Amino acid sequence: MAVTSVFATKGNLIVTKNSLKLSKQGYELLDKKRTILINEMMRLIKVADKIQSNIDSTFTKAYQALQNANIVEGISMVRQIAKAVPVDDSISIRFRSVMGVEIPEISYSEQALAPTYGFMGVVIALDEAYQHFENVRRLTIQLAEIETAVYRLAVNIKKTQKRANALKNIIIPRYEEIVSNITNVLEEKDREEFTRLKVIKRQKGGS
Predict the structure, then answer these.
(1) Is residue 27 part of a domain?
(2) Which of 70, 82, 106, 187 has its C-alpha lying 20 to 30 A from 126's C-alpha?
(3) For residue 132, what is the domain's CATH number?
(4) Of 53, 54, 48, whose CA–CA distance to 145 is shortest?
(5) Whole-prediction pTM value?
(6) If we measure between CA atoms, which residue out of 7, 61, 124 comes closest to residue 15?
(7) What domain range includes position 161?
(8) How many domains does the chain have?
(9) Is residue 58 part of a domain?
(10) Residues 37, 106, 49: CA angle, nearest 5 degrees
(11) In-domain check, residue 190
(12) Mean pLDDT by 10 residues, the chain (207 residues)
């Protein structure tokens, strides 16, 4: 039923009361959903902060080792060695639902470190860079998963908040007003009818 002025009948009063009840239930569900999504988002943000900190420190170590390798081996040689590293195609994505929000979960094969270059004449700095960048890859995958989840949660929280506010501040008050108006009109009609019947009864008694 549209939230507009309606005729003051008992049928419309029942329908409006049911709509009001459903609106209040809807608001309670949206409020619970919003709370759950916010808690999940805050939890993921804490995890993301830790991963970001690890990435920053690991990147620093990796680039320092790479810089040392470039100095000793030469940039051209390091570039050729880098081309020998195979592309990782083990990454796959699936989703889990949190209150209807699809949250990505990334899985990948975490294999033991096995450099694709020969050890003859290769400096230790290159091995260190390889190891550190492998750690960066792993942390980046984890961070991408969490940041995507946080973004999706934030978008859905905003939508949920908007819908909850509409129910709380617009829909529910209007239904309450309609119920009150219809109730007042019906009560007034009942009083008028009661008074009319008393007058009729008095007139009949006096005749």
Answers:
(1) yes
(2) 106
(3) 1.10.287.3240
(4) 48
(5) 0.74
(6) 7
(7) 10-184
(8) 1
(9) yes
(10) 55
(11) no
(12) 67 94 96 96 94 88 86 81 74 89 85 55 71 86 93 96 96 94 89 78 67
